[in-house]
UniProtKB/TrEMBL annotation:
<protein>
    <submittedName>
        <fullName>Acyl-CoA dehydrogenase</fullName>
    </submittedName>
</protein>
<dbReference type="Pfam" id="PF00441">
    <property type="entry name" value="Acyl-CoA_dh_1"/>
</dbReference>
<dbReference type="Pfam" id="PF02771">
    <property type="entry name" value="Acyl-CoA_dh_N"/>
</dbReference>
<dbReference type="InterPro" id="IPR023606">
    <property type="entry name" value="CoA-Trfase_III_dom_1_sf"/>
</dbReference>
<dbReference type="InterPro" id="IPR044855">
    <property type="entry name" value="CoA-Trfase_III_dom3_sf"/>
</dbReference>
<dbReference type="InterPro" id="IPR001199">
    <property type="entry name" value="Cyt_B5-like_heme/steroid-bd"/>
</dbReference>
<dbReference type="InterPro" id="IPR018506">
    <property type="entry name" value="Cyt_B5_heme-BS"/>
</dbReference>
<dbReference type="InterPro" id="IPR050509">
    <property type="entry name" value="CoA-transferase_III"/>
</dbReference>
<feature type="domain" description="Cytochrome b5 heme-binding">
    <location>
        <begin position="401"/>
        <end position="480"/>
    </location>
</feature>
<keyword id="KW-0274">FAD</keyword>
<dbReference type="InterPro" id="IPR009100">
    <property type="entry name" value="AcylCoA_DH/oxidase_NM_dom_sf"/>
</dbReference>
<dbReference type="InterPro" id="IPR037069">
    <property type="entry name" value="AcylCoA_DH/ox_N_sf"/>
</dbReference>
<comment type="similarity">
    <text>Belongs to the acyl-CoA dehydrogenase family.</text>
</comment>
<dbReference type="GO" id="GO:0020037">
    <property type="term" value="F:heme binding"/>
</dbReference>
<keyword id="KW-0479">Metal-binding</keyword>
<dbReference type="InterPro" id="IPR003673">
    <property type="entry name" value="CoA-Trfase_fam_III"/>
</dbReference>
<comment type="similarity">
    <text>Belongs to the CoA-transferase III family.</text>
</comment>
Length: 903
């Protein structure tokens, strides 16, 4: 079926019907991209990255069939932009040319009809096939490019992506601006030959100016094409490369003097050594080139990179793509969209693994359903060939409906024709086998190829592997008469594994604290976590980008943001979902520690001082927009100089001469969410002692990412305040009374951390129980060994006692005022937090022992355990280090010791 659909008939829709990306530049824009080769999708990607969609969706429609064409007309009539990547005439022949939409009685006069062809639309090559290299050739630009004997193409970057895709996207943006003024759409015409010439304007114009570097010399002998020795790439001692680009005499001087110093003193080219003032003496260039070529070979690349780092010598290492990805703040292998637009820093959606594999027709059902096309109509259209949709599990077209016997499967046991059965499902891995991350040989093993490989599979993969779309579609049917028995995560449901849920959620147990309402509430939050939060958390923890605005908006709509601050006046008038403990514990289940903190934990600890100690005017301005997820806040207390020791802080705030503003100077470190915060609740040293002030991002406030052991998704920042200003009205609490502001905050912060820690210990218990049951060692399941069971006993006891103590303290909190809590519970909470985090570390260590090598591997079976173990120390430090808290607890107790007590 797939093959019947030629490229010209497939449609990619980069647009979503119900999106609400208010903060992104192209929010709500619906783009229809007819599937083509690289440049069209790139133009679509640029639009999608800026808000036109959450990633692309694919619908497969055949426009040559009656119903298909009608559908297309409808879709395009509702679109803002259409991207046509076909040769001239194709769209017209399909009856979908620009006139149909933009003409006199056109169907969509606001449509921006972007067309992209290789050769100029009117020229002599217009009907010919071609590729990047041909467009480059015809543009004249290829003749300028370096390469021995003949020019070499610089992959397909210039014509396809710069001259084609990028130009096309720019044309669309220009047309959108124009539409904003006139209300009318128009045709945007891009061809890659002219586009290439345009992006090459400067070199091409340079050729016309006799004195320019482009006009001097032949290809390969010019300033920027490898001719100049000081603008070149050299191979270093370790075989890696370094780039040199010091064109300006001042930069060259810096470079050459340092270089000559770095090579052995007796090194020369037959007695010749370069000098700083002979840079442009072309007669010396061959000698200079040889000098640099041999000179760079004395040392490895990174030696040179370090030597010139931070200087103006313009010498930088040629990084591999992997190294370059690491340098990116997000350390993402997927390039982050560019340019960044300050209105929404980092608020784009980086495609996850799923959207890297877009299959024609993957979203046909979703998109047509959005148009109101019913199942019966879709079925009919599929029958006539007007549409193609990918099978869905529960549709009659699902592979579930195709049945095979194990004997039939066994016939497909060779390279190129390889099937296997896993958990009563049949997979055709013929095409996948060469890409299998575990290698080809394991799949060709006689015990596996054509066989029921369930046991082999589950001892090496997490069940969720088969749920990823790119693997799910390998399934071609089921084994007749057999039923799947393996359950991985059942979205929204409680786990059946013992101790995987707190007792109040387990059937047959009772609780003095929780009611049916709480259970209902838990169910609602779990659904949100499993369906929306978990998938995004897994992607973003890896790619390091922050929580999406879509999730923030959803949490705002559910009033989750407001609820996370616990009971109080701020909840008045909001649609309430009860139970902060429940909420916090469920959110922890997103299973991604950095992302979890990125999920506005800055608000959880940074906003209460505003709520409880801010002026009415300040609260009215700040609180609603933070709850609505429009602005972000963080708590900025700790410094490189002082962490748990609040009185040792060095950031100062002094009043301006007119007494109206605070002027703040100093630095803050490890500020969760700081990198994307608009507000900072800052602890400052003032004349009267310690004062907390709300500072808004503005002049004098800079934030930098700190690379910690968890994901940059948390936005952990180093903040500098250089004469930053805040109105005196932004003071939280009394001047000099900061310690009281913080004390009431500490209880809340620590208690929240206990909720998270107790819940994640439980998740580790679940992982270990499952793994020790399915993993065989020495011929028996791991859990048949007493040492393993003993470790499990410790883990379970710790998780249960943390939860029980937490529930008891929470009950006390519910029945005490903040003031009473400060007196009676600060010590209890401090002890609990220290207990939670120390037991968490013990549990993490034991879990790694149980998982073995997998427990230190970031992908595969042990990935949660690896993640947990790597990030568990955060809790033990944030909100007060363990020893400090324990001591605080004892000191609090000593304070209330009866003076007259004797043994
Ligand atoms: C539809 C079938 C299969 C799919 C989609 C699949 C997919 C994968 C993936 C994604 C990985 C990377 C590890 C991870 O991230 O979890 C992997 C690893 C591996 N696979 Fe498969 N696999 C399949 C079948 C099998 C079978 C039947 C075997 C039989 C022995 C096998 C043996 C392995 C091995 C040995 C590894 C390396 C495990 C490690 O590094 O610990 N795979 N596979």
């Amino acid at each position: 079926m797939v093959q019947e659909y030629g490229a010209a008939n497939r449609i990619i829709i980069a647009g979503h019907f119900n999106l609400n990306f208010l903060l992104m530049a192209l929010a709500g824009l619906k783009v229809i991209e007819f599937a083509g080769l690289a440049p069209g999708p790139f133009a679509g990607l640029i639009l999608a990255d800026n808000g036109a969609s959450v990633g692309k969706k694919s619908v497969a429609i055949n426009p040559k069939i009656e119903g298909g064409k009608a559908l297309l007309l409808r879709l395009i009539s509702e679109a803002d932009v259409l991207i046509d990547p076909y040769r001239p005439g194709v769209m017209e022949r399909l009856g979908l040319g620009p006139d149909v939409f933009l003409g006199k009685s056109g169907l969509n006069k606001r449509l921006i009809y972007a067309r992209m062809v290789g050769f100029p639309r009117e020229g002599p090559h217009k009907d010919m096939a071609g590729h990047d290299i041909n467009y480059l050739a015809l543009s004249g630009v290829l003749s300028l490019l370096p390469g021995q004997d003949k020019p070499q193409p610089p992959i397909n970057i210039v014509a396809d992506f710069a001259g084609g895709g990028l130009s096309c996207a720019m044309g669309i943006l220009l047309a959108l601006i124009d539409r904003g003024k006139t209300g009318r759409g128009q045709v945007v015409d891009t061809n890659m030959v002219s586009g290439t010439r345009y992006v090459s304007s400067f070199p091409l114009l340079g050729l016309l100016v006799p004195s320019s570097s482009m006009a001097m010399g032949e290809r390969g002998s010019r300033l920027l094409d490898g001719g100049a020795p000081f603008y070149n790439v050299y191979t270093c001692g370790d075989g890696r490369w370094i780039s040199v680009g010091c064109i300006e005499p001042a930069f060259y001087k810096l470079f050459i003097e340092q270089f000559v110093n770095a090579v052995p003193t007796d090194f020369s080219i037959s007695g010749w050594r370069p000098t700083a003032d002979e840079q442009y003496n072309q007669d010396d260039w061959p000698k200079l080139k040889e000098y640099l070529t041999r000179g760079f070979a004395f040392q490895p690349r990174d030696y040179w990179a370090k030597l010139f780092h931070g200087t103006d010598a313009c010498v930088l290492p040629v990084l591999s793509t992997e190294e370059a990805a690491q340098l990116d703040a997000s350390a993402s292998s997927f390039p982050v969209p560019h340019p960044r637009i300050s209105a929404g820093p980092g608020r784009w959606v980086v495609p996850g693994e799923d959207s890297l594999y877009l299959e024609a027709g993957q979203h046909t059902v979703e998109i047509l359903a959005g148009l109101g096309v019913g199942e019966a109509q879709m079925e009919e259209m599929e029958r006539t060939g007007a549409i193609r949709r990918l099978p869905l599990d529960d549709s009659p077209f699902s592979p579930m409906s195709k049945q095979f016997t194990l004997e039939e499967v066994a016939k497909h046991n060779k390279p190129g024709d390889l099937w296997l059965a896993i958990d009563a499902k049949v997979y055709d891995v013929s095409k996948f086998m060469n890409m299998h991350p575990g290698g080809l040989s394991v799949l060709l093993d006689p015990e596996v190829s054509g066989q029921d490989a369930t046991e082999a599979f589950f001892s090496l993969h997490r069940a969720e592997v088969l749920e990823r779309p790119q693997y799910k579609r390998l399934q071609i049917g089921v084994i007749a008469g057999e039923e799947s028995t393996i359950v991985s995560r059942v979205t929204g449901e409680l786990s059946k594994v013992p101790y995987a849920e707190p007792t109040w959620l387990v059937e047959g147990y009772h609780s003095p604290y929780f009611t049916e309402n709480h259970r209902q509430f838990q169910k609602a939050v779990r659904k949100f976590v499993d369906e929306d939060l978990y998938p995004e958390a897994q992607i973003k923890e890896e790619d390091g980008t922050r929580v999406s605005q879509e999730i923030v908006d959803k949490m705002a709509a559910l009033n989750i943001n407001a609820m996370r601050l616990g009971p109080g006046k701020h909840l008045h008038g909001l649609t309430l979902m009860n139970g902060l403990l429940v909420l916090t514990q469920e959110l922890t289940r997103c299973g991604a520690r950095g992302y979890g903190d990125g999920l506005l934990s800055g608000m959880v600890i940074g906003l209460p001082p505003v709520l409880n100690f801010g002026s009415e005017e300040l609260k009215a301005r700040v609180v609603p927009e933070v709850f609505q997820g429009k602005k972000f806040i963080s708590l900025a207390i700790s410094e490189a100089h002082a962490g748990s020791d609040v009185m040792g802080l060095q950031t100062t705030a002094v009043k301006s001469e007119d007494g109206k503003e605070w002027i703040i100077n100093g630095t803050k470190k490890w500020i969760t969410n700081g990198h994307f915060s608009d507000y900072f609740t800052v602890g400052c040293k003032t004349e009267d002692g310690f004062t907390v002030i709300l500072v808004e991002r503005g002049p004098g406030v800079e934030t930098k990412h700190i690379k910690t052991s968890y994901s940059p998704s948390a936005g952990t920042a180093y903040i500098t305040f250089d004469n930053a200003r805040a109105p005196v009205g932004n003071t939280l609490g009394e001047e000099g009374g900061g310690i009281f502001v913080m004390l009431s905050n500490f209880n809340h912060e620590r208690w929240v951390m206990c909720c998270g820690s107790a819940r994640s210990q439980r998740s580790v218990v679940e992982e270990c129980l499952k793994w020790s049951a399915q993993r065989k060692a020495f011929g028996k399941p791991l859990n048949s060994m007493a040492v393993i069971r003993s470790k499990m006993a410790g883990m379970i006891s710790r998780a249960e006692s943390a939860q029980a103590w937490l529930e008891s303290i929470t009950y006390q909190m519910c029945n005490m005022s903040y003031k009473q809590q400060a007196g009676k519970l600060a010590g209890q909470i401090a002890f609990l937090k220290a207990y939670c985090t120390s037991s968490a570390q013990e549990t993490a260590r034991d879990a790694v022992q149980i998982f073995g090598g997998r427990g230190i591997t970031r992908t595969g079976m042990g990935r949660y355990i690896e993640h947990y173990h790597r990030t568990v120390a955060f809790d033990a430090l944030l909100g007060g280090a363990e020893d400090v808290l324990r001591d605080l607890g004892v000191r609090q107790a000593l304070r209330v010791m009866p003076k007259d007590s004797r043994l």
